[in-house]
Design goal:
Shape: globular
Pfam family, one: DUF4396
Number of strands: 2
Organism: Pseudonocardia charpentierae
Protein name: DUF4396 domain-containing protein
Order of helices and strands: EEHHHHH
Keywords: Membrane, Transmembrane, Transmembrane helix
Number of domains: 1
């Protein structure tokens, strides 16, 4: 059974199978941008400040959500949507995608021996972080494809991209 998504002045049937992988990858790349900014900033701040790994991970997750939502809200606000409504749209559009990315990339960072303690000048830290974000992207693309096919996730924001 397919759902319907409103794209401005017309309605199109959607479903998981009808969503091109390129659309899902594009939505995931958008999400990855905000997540990566927050994740890297959190890891850098936590590592430079000598925070415990748990505190560094929490900081990274919080900043990933903040930057992820902020990037989505930026475009929605430009479309003339009020702040409160733009926040609701960003929450609906990005929460699952960001959560999946954060679970994956932080699990990888914590599972690579010594990565969290390697320090900012270590290739091990940066290689593990890059690998973690890449794997998070790959895992999240099908999640976003499934959500878009059901009129959720990035599909919620689509009407404001024009």
């Amino acid at each position: 059974m397919s759902s319907e998504t409103n794209h401005g002045h017309h309605t199109e049937p959607t479903g998981y199978a009808s969503v091109p992988w390129s659309v899902a990858a594009s939505a995931t790349l958008h999400c990855l941008t905000g997540c990566a900014i927050g994740e890297v900033l959190g890891m850098v701040i936590g590592t430079a400040a000598g925070l415990h790994n748990a505190a560094t991970v929490v900081l990274s997750i919080v900043l990933a959500f903040v930057f992820g939502y902020a990037l989505t809200m930026r475009g929605v606000l430009r479309a003339g949507v009020r702040f409160g409504d733009a926040l609701k749209i960003a929450l609906a559009a990005d929460t699952v995608s960001i959560a999946v990315m954060e679970i994956i990339d932080n699990a990888i960072m914590l599972s690579v021996p010594g990565a969290m303690d390697a320090g900012l000048t270590s290739w091990q830290f940066w290689a593990a972080l890059a690998f973690a974000l890449a794997v998070a992207f790959v895992v999240t693309v099908p999640v976003n494809r499934w959500m878009i096919g059901r009129g959720r996730g990035h599909a919620v924001v689509h009407a404001y991209h024009h």
